[in-house]
């Protein structure tokens, strides 16, 4: 009988219970290494071992700790459960010589500047950008590219710490405020339009699954101004559906992902063109994975566990048969600690969020128009009856 596979999972936040459950169901041993701040979260009982450290950002300390664990454990696979763990996981794979994404490729999925440059290398249309490093090049960029511009940290997640600048003076003030940290940023053309996202499964360097959606408002606007966060699966009649699927595949494979799950974002510009925005090598956040499953029947967390296990066992992997339903997600902060979401009682409601001071719903139907009408109705009701607005934080959604 073969020795069971052992996976080490890295987490800065509480993520991935369904992945852990699936690894356990597949006969694997599951070891968690997470930050101390999430020790008391409801981690599933299927974990064989769990360890916590004060700060996973201390790469040297984490490398020594994992190397110590490896004296008496043989780690076959290593999975980063959130954006902030991706580069750390790559460093540990290189150090322990574990199969999977290495440091160079991980850069393309974490470092927005590296991501931009590699996408440009493979011919992907994207906003104009410049590294916030050489002052002459920054000045030339602001003269050549019309404002507004977006100042972005290279290695944050979502809309965290992103600043929109409307004048060159505003840019230089922001750069000055960054001090010696300004090389960790890039300045990017702001492209007005609607933001799309695609959630994918890749195996053997091939795109096996890709589910496109439209945000009703750009996440940057929701993050900074508040309101209800909405996402809806794209209709088969959407004029850019095929184009965004094709661009998504070109970007994922162009950035070098051999296997795993991805969350990518694109802008459908007011000029009619499609622009690549960013890509992450992990399951989507903000409960978008529930929306994906409601539309397709595919659980991204469980499929991630299945494909990693299949690879290490030398077995074939196939994505399960997919439904072609339509789904929508509504999510917002709540004025009440435990809002009563049972009043949103339409038959299309397939999921309700249970989290303090948050409200969330996922809708599903075989009719795209029914989902749209119900989202319009529920958006208005949530705004009037539930919504709270808070200043943006330095934490991802």
Shape: globular
- CATH hierarchy: architecture of the largest domain: 2-Layer Sandwich
Supply the helix-strand structural class. alpha+beta
Classified in CATH, the superfamily of the largest domain is ATP-grasp fold, B domain
Query: What is the end-to-end distance?
Result: 43 Å
How much of the sequence lies in strands comes to: 25-35%
Radius of gyration: 21 Å
* Counted beta strands: 17
Draw up the topology in text.
Elements: E1 6-11, H1 17-25, E2 29-35, E3 49-53, H2 59-69, E4 77-80, H3 83-96, H4 103-110, H5 112-121, E5 129-131, H6 135-144, E6 149-153, E7 163-165, H7 168-178, E8 185-189, E9 193-203, E10 206-215, H8 219-225, E11 229-233, H9 241-254, E12 260-269, E13 274-280, H10 288-296, H11 300-313, E14 326-334, E15 349-352, E16 358-365, H12 368-385, E17 387-388
Helix pairs in contact: 1-11, 2-3, 3-4, 4-5
């Amino acid at each position: 009988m073969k020795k069971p596979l052992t996976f080490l999972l890295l987490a800065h936040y509480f993520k991935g219970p369904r992945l852990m459950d699936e690894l356990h169901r597949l006969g694997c041993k599951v070891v968690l290494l997470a930050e101390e701040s999430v020790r008391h979260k409801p981690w599933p009982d299927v974990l064989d071992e769990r360890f916590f450290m004060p700060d996973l950002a201390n790469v040297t300390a984490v490398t020594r700790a994992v190397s110590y664990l490896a004296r008496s454990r043989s780690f076959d696979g290593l999975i980063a459960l959130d954006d902030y763990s991706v580069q750390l996981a790559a460093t540990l794979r290189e150090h322990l010589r574990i199969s999977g994404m290495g440091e160079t490729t991980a850069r393309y999925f974490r470092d927005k500047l590296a991501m931009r440059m590699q996408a440009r290398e493979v011919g992907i249309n994207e906003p104009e950008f410049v590294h916030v490093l050489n002052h002459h090049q920054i000045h030339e960029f602001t003269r050549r590219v019309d404002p507004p511009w977006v100042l972005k940290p290279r290695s944050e997640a979502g809309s965290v710490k992103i600043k929109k600048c409307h004048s060159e003076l505003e840019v230089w003030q922001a750069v000055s405020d960054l001090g010696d940290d300004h090389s960790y940023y890039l300045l990017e053309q702001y492209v007005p339009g609607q933001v799309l996202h695609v959630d994918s499964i890749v195996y053997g360097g091939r795109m096996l699954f890709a589910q496109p959606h439209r945000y009703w408002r750009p996440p940057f606007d929701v993050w900074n101004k508040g309101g209800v966060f909405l996402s809806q699966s794209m209709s088969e009649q959407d004029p850019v559906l095929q184009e965004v699927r094709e661009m998504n595949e070109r970007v994922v494979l162009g950035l070098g992902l051999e296997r795993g799950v991805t969350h990518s974002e694109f802008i459908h510009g007011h000029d009619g063109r499609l622009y690549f925005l960013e890509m992450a090598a992990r399951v989507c956040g903000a409960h978008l994975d529930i929306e994906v499953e409601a539309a397709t029947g595919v659980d991204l967390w469980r499929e991630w566990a299945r494909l990693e296990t299949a690879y290490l066992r030398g077995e074939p992997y196939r994505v399960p048969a997919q439904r072609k339903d339509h789904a929508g997600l509504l999510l917002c902060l709540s004025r009440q600690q435990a809002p009563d979401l049972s009043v949103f009682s339409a038959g299309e409601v397939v999921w309700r969020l249970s989290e303090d001071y948050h409200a969330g719903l996922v809708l599903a139907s075989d009719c795209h128009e029914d989902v749209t009408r119900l989202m319009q109705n529920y958006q208005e009701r949530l705004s009037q009856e539930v919504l709270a607005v808070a200043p943006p934080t330095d934490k991802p959604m």
